[in-house]
Amino acid sequence: MPQRYIEAIVKYLSGRDYQPLKPQQLARQMGIVAEDYGSFREAVKILRDNGRIVLGSKNALMLPEISSRMTGFFRANPRGFGFVIPETPNSHGDLFIPEGATRGAMTGDMVVARVYQQGRREGQKSYAGEIIEISKRGNNRFVGTLQESQGTWFVLPDGNGLTQPIVVRDVSTASPHKGTKVVVEIVQYPQAGDLPIGVIVETLGKKGMLHVETLSVIRAHGIEDEFTAEALEDARLAIAAFNPHQSDGRQDLAGMTIVTIDPPDARDFDDAISLEKHPDGQYTLGVHIADVSHFVQEGNDLDRQARSRGNSVYFPKKVVPMLPEILSNGVCSLQQDQRRFCQSAFIRYDSGGNVLGSKVALTVIKSARRLTYLEAQDIIDGKIGAVPHNVATLLADMNRLARIIEVRRRKAGMLHLDLPEVELIFDEQDRVIDAVPQDNAYTHTIIEMFMVEANEAVASLLNGLNRPCLRRIHPAPDKAGSKQLEMFVRAAGHKLPIDMTRRDMQELLERVKGKPESYAINLALLKTFEQAEYSPLQVGHFALASEHYCHFTSPIRRYPDLTVHRLVREHCLGTLGSRPSEDMSALVQLGESCNTTERRAQAAENELREVLILQFLETKVGEDFQGVITGVTNFGMFVQSPRFLIDGLVRFQDLGDDWWEVDSKLGMVTGERTGMRFRIGDLIDVRIAGVDIARRQLNLAPQSAERKKPKKAGKKPTKQGKPDKYFSSRKKKRGT
Fold first, then answer.
1. Which of 450, 358, 319 is nearest to 732 (CA)?
2. Mind listing the pLDDT tens digit for each residue in 109-167?
3. Which of 93, 105, 255, 701 has the greatest number of C-beta atoms within 10 Å?
């Protein structure tokens, strides 16, 4: 059936690094087997007939050129600009909409934009646009604070999606009080000069309270936080049928020394580790992952709701789980001394950490010890003595093997950025009072390396079986991004080839390590990459230097992992050959859905974190700190607090009487009269001038009218050492 390839072909042609290919070449690149080529070619014909793809020179396939008008979904940026994601992909991709040309469009709105040429960039035409019509609103509910002025009640919306107050006329003595957080539904959108009108549909509570602000963010981002009765019933039935002593042919590993290592407040233990060291110096690593596919049957109500959620969302002191907690924190959690069903990846290594072979199996395990990262590190370092010998030996071997694997992966090109992470500290009233660097225990890296290895082993297995799956892909930087990075690095006094390789990037990071410009270059390199995403396309993972990569290690909290587990389960049972071949177009659409829910979760987590920090900084107005310049725009510079990792804005008018020239490619601002120069990565002394929690804004000003000359930044100052950052963060985002 050709329909199964249509969306996959369009997705592949939409890649930033796609070079026009003939149909047969494209089929090979996409991993289409010979017996399916007829359906693939028919899909190409359908796409050509519909004008979704065109034949270029030498009969190569490509997307059509951008037209003078574009219809698509709008994605707003908090800094005022936005992008239109075209409904029908074209060769240009997303359309940039500058600040002032959005026509009040909000994220999720279906819009029509007028397209105009903006010049040329890297020899290619560059385009921008202006919203001329909002054809359909994507959201009609907003969260905000109820206020009253001169007898008129209104809601001040949170964030920058809608900046106008929403008038409410259904307020009575029984209604929420002034200062209450509410959800309001717009019933009449504003005409020119008018305000929108809405009705209150939910009262959340007093603003400023942690649980209220958390619920506000959940509602604002449309995150599902209640399970349907049908989904809960599916979960209860699965639990009732679970008998840990009836292994159903599973390999019983209950007698093996296996441990879990997680944060101290974790409850959903989804991975565990075993390791055998052989007399010849070889190792067999066992990565044991909760077998969620045993409990969540494909296509039932529980599965549909998990698919809709896409992932768990982690807030301070609250988790919105992908699966009901009776599963995620119960029978699916690899709790100490409890028999649990797993899917296990076994990887054999030589003494140099090179993979000799791997296999997967359905297993039963029993964790011998639940450890935190710091506990495990203290055992490795010999700081805790009262530990069973088998556990201490296992941890020592894990530490040794992980370091060997890390060396091997770095030689292969895995990238390693030195960027900070912090943990918020709360008082007894659940208010932020401080932030401290996350611990830099090497046990984080141990688990990270093992999860990456397991993900890669499973992806390679499925690739060898010619079974499409949702991969975790991370494209290489495109030429435009590479050129911009090269210019930035050159301005910082270093060289980097335009056609840069992973090795070039590694050598650059090593050269700047410990130097003043280190932070700026690490940050610039991070911004060069596209975000990793889910897709069935065989693109590989650039940052991990991995040809085949998927997510296998967290099916409790990520739906893509659950889809991979179903394939692995059938492989282990010997039934994969009778499973219908995957619909590539359906996999593309599922990947896009999971990408959307992942970005939504990240945005919600970041927003709540920002709100809580702004609440704290509101009590610190007038205080000074030394920050790092993280961005420049035509209206000011963004400066980040190294203590809280939050950006504030320094407007150009506050820098003094000068004409400030902005070079966004070099990330630099220069005063025409004074010659003062500010660059991304420079340190600058600033004062907290104001806080607007509703608008999520931190306003900063130079510490003195004389505008102290910015210092060149080295590593950002913190109270203690900072952990290194790989292309994934810890625990809840293992595996990159």
1. 319
2. 999 999 998 877 666 788 999 999 999 988 889 999 999 998 899 999 998 777 789 99
3. 105
Contact 569, 362 (CB under 8 A): yes
CA distance 260 to 95: 46
Q: How far apart are CA 280 and CA 497, in angstroms?
A: 43
Q: Could you write out the three-class secondary structure of 381-402? A: CCCCCCCCHHHHHHHHHHHHHH
Q: Are strands 82-86 and 95-97 parallel, antiparallel or unpaired?
A: antiparallel
Q: What is the DSSP-derived secondary structure letter of residue 475?
A: P
Rounded to an integer, what distance in angstroms lies between the CA atom of residue 412 and that of residue 352?
13
Say if CB 537 and CB 8 are below 8 A apart: yes
Nearest to 568 by CA among 705, 464, 672: 464
CA distance 584 to 4: 5
Residue 111: CB atoms within 10 Å:
28
What order do you get walking across the sheet with 339-349 strand by strand? 251-252, 355-366, 339-349, 283-290, 271-277, 259-262, 369-372
Q: Find tokens 């203590």 and name the residue.
A: 643
Asked if 529 and 638 touch (Cβ cutoff 8 Å), the reply is no
At residue 394 the predicted structure's pLDDT band, cuts being 50, 70 and 90, is very high
What are the backbone dihedrals phi and psi of residue 682, each rounded to the nearest 5 degrees, phi first?
A: -70, 150
Rounded-to-integer distance, Cα 367 and Cα 269, Å: 10
Q: What is the mean pLDDT of residues 610-637?
A: 92
Listed in sequence order, the residues at least 6 apart from 169 whose beta carbon sits closer than 8 Å to its beta carbon are 153, 197, 199
| Residue 20, phi then psi, degrees to nearest 5 | -50, 130
Residues sharing a CB contact under 8 Å with residue 230, sequence separation 6 or more, in sequence order: 301, 302
